[in-house]
């Protein structure tokens, strides 16, 4: 029986090859007689898994010397607090770009720990695009500039990397590992795992070493990047099984040809789906073309009263979790790394047939 195609925005599909390998190793990882979930995080078996995963992630992203890679808990939402707690203690001020629901949440949380300057906002326009570099009104004394390269709910993606004299901080929860990234342009990158990396429960942080160790004095120990860096992400018991599965995803990506190969696949998927939407009078995408996301494609039907029928028919066709976020409505197809091109083709074919019969 073939598996359905799951277009969930997260937790999202995992590569089938990764799930099959995890299944094969579930009861006995490499002759140890243990499931990875049962291993001590300080034992030699899990330490080998953790070290290999970090090496593979560094290889995939080309992480330069002078950066630490952390495997943490708490999701990206914890990073909304950890970033200002750790990076804004000196200046007490940070620049933020407001481009959608997740950047709004990051801004709201940062207000609790530092002065926030919103250097650009597309909210008055309904979050239909990313601001241009020329529109950014950056502060001279900001500790960092925070932005969300891809807004999963609105389907808005930055087509460029913002320039800033202050260290650049990026919430890459929905784009990390979808294409190559020049890590050297960033002071800190963070990403919840449940889009392109692995299961929920793991958060990746890549932080430049000179940004460690200057946190607010009230910062809890578990929220200090320096503590986690000094302890190899094992100050407490880490999310071991999620770390292991992420490591399998890293190996799967390397087998595919790395992030260059993954980028080509993702570009093709997005181009085909947007082309189908644009060629139709029945479907529409609200985002300006230059700011369209590769990962999250929202679309609406010309007649919203047909939404329920569309979703029911899609489910029957093996196309799952296409309902748009409650704040924007319509549909949303999240086409992360694990979504095969065949899944996108199946969605396009269903959309065409639904338009033919119901449009």
From TrEMBL:
L-glutamate binds at residue 42. Residues 5-347 form the Aminotransferase class V domain. The keyword Cytoplasm applies. Binds 1 pyridoxal phosphate per subunit. GO terms for biological process: L-serine biosynthetic process; pyridoxine biosynthetic process. InterPro entries: Aminotrans_V_dom (IPR000192), Aminotrans_V_PyrdxlP_BS (IPR020578), Pser_aminoTfrase (IPR022278), PyrdxlP-dep_Trfase (IPR015424), PyrdxlP-dep_Trfase_major (IPR015421), PyrdxlP-dep_Trfase_small (IPR015422). Its main location: cytoplasm. It catalyses: 4-(phosphooxy)-L-threonine + 2-oxoglutarate = (R)-3-hydroxy-2-oxo-4-phosphooxybutanoate + L-glutamate; O-phospho-L-serine + 2-oxoglutarate = 3-phosphooxypyruvate + L-glutamate. GO terms for cellular component: cytoplasm. Its EC number is 2.6.1.52. The modification N6-(pyridoxal phosphate)lysine is found at residue 195. The keyword S-adenosyl-L-methionine does not apply. Pyridoxal 5'-phosphate binds at residues 76-77, 102, 152, 171, 194, 236-237. Pathway: Cofactor biosynthesis; pyridoxine 5'-phosphate biosynthesis; pyridoxine 5'-phosphate from D-erythrose 4-phosphate: step 3/5; Amino-acid biosynthesis; L-serine biosynthesis; L-serine from 3-phospho-D-glycerate: step 2/3. Pfam families: Aminotran_5. Catalyzes the reversible conversion of 3-phosphohydroxypyruvate to phosphoserine and of 3-hydroxy-2-oxo-4-phosphonooxybutanoate to phosphohydroxythreonine. HAMAP family: SerC_aminotrans_5 (MF_00160). Homodimer. This is Phosphoserine aminotransferase. It comes from Thiohalocapsa marina.
